[in-house]
């Protein structure tokens, strides 16, 4: 299942690593001393991470380590208690979820969040709402600008679905499709926002081995075709080690280790966090 043609990762002055193709370019994401507290509990503490413009990165750790909380911080579901998030060099301080989406971060969730009774195409078109350029009156009266924008959205939705091999189910109700197909629709919907950074929260959850292998190739295809960065939370270590170029491991809200898959797989602290010490 391992994908062989990963880019070489190069150390950078900030103590991180970058895909060799991204050296000399503005990182797409920089987290600097990022943290959040809930009632005095530090859910994430001094989280530092740099992701290159075309990197496939992994965020892993035991259950409850704070992985989804970090995604919620990046997308401003939560506002950080302290620290800085730079998206393409721009500070996202005080941005809300809509503004962050427009700035270039898209995500999927652990639990599928499709509109089950809507068609696959309409689920994708929902994500294009911010880019639709017609007034309320033009929409109500179905004026030419409305039809032009709708045609543009239709063409884009079909193009993205075709890219993921799903154009033939565009008119099917999303909720009637198999689990793996619904996961792919969520990814297509995220791509419809034209992201610079795609966040995938446990994309392989509930998938069988053949679906997981297809997902691996789709993630790489997305990166290569759209030239964007992808960051994923995942418990399937075959997927993580097979496709991620850089991996960050967190435990109890803190960075435990950062490195290449080979470095992470042989890191004693990571092994202990997942498997426990010999004394345990």
| Helix-and-strand structural type | alpha/beta
Task: Count the domains.
Answer: 2
What shape does the CA trace take? Answer: globular
Topology as a string of helices (H) and strands (E)? EEEEEHEEHEHHHHEHEHEEHH
Tally of alpha and pi helices:
10
Largest sheet: 6 strands, mixed
The CATH homologous superfamily of the largest domain is called P-loop containing nucleotide triphosphate hydrolases
The proportion of residues in beta strands is: 15-25%
| CATH topology descriptor of the largest domain | Rossmann fold
Oligomer: single chain
Mean pLDDT score: 88
Distance between the termini: 32 Å
Poorly predicted residue ranges: none
Q: Largest sheet, order of strands side by side?
A: 8-9-10-5-11-12
At the first level of CATH, the class of the largest domain is: Alpha Beta
Name given to the CATH architecture of the largest domain:
3-Layer(aba) Sandwich
The tally of strands reads: 12
**What is the percent of helical residues?**
25-40%
**Gyration radius, to the nearest Å?**
19 Å
């Amino acid at each position: 299942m391992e994908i062989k043609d990963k880019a070489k990762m190069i150390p950078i002055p900030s103590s991180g690593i970058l895909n060799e193709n991204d050296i000399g370019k503005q990182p797409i994401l920089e987290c600097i001393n990022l943290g959040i507290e809930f009632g005095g509990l530090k859910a994430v503490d001094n989280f530092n991470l740099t992701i290159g413009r075309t990197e496939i990165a992994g965020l892993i750790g035991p259950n409850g380590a704070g992985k989804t909380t970090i995604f919620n911080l990046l997308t401003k579901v939560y506002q950080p208690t302290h620290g800085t998030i730079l998206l393409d060099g721009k500070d996202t301080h005080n941005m809300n979820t809509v503004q962050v989406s427009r700035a270039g971060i898209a995500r999927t969730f652990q639990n599928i969040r499709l509109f089950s009774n809507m068609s696959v195409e309409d689920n994708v078109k929902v994500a294009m709402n911010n880019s639709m350029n017609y007034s309320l009156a033009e929409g109500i009266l179905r004026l030419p600008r409305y039809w032009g924008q709708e045609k543009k959205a239709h063409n884009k939705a079909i193009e993205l679905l075709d890219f993921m091999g799903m154009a033939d189910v565009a008119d099917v109700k999303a909720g009637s499709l198999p689990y793996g197909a619904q996961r792919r629709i969520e990814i297509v919907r995220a791509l419809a926002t034209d992201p610079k950074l795609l966040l995938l929260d446990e994309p392989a959850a509930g998938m069988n081995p053949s679906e997981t292998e297809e997902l691996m190739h789709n993630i790489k295809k997305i990166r290569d075709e759209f030239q964007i960065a992808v960051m994923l939370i995942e418990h399937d270590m075959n997927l993580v080690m097979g496709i991620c170029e850089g991996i960050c491991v967190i435990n109890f809200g803190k960075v435990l280790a950062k490195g290449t898959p080979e470095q992470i797989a042989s890191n004693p602290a990571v092994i202990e966090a997942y498997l426990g010490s010999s004394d345990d």
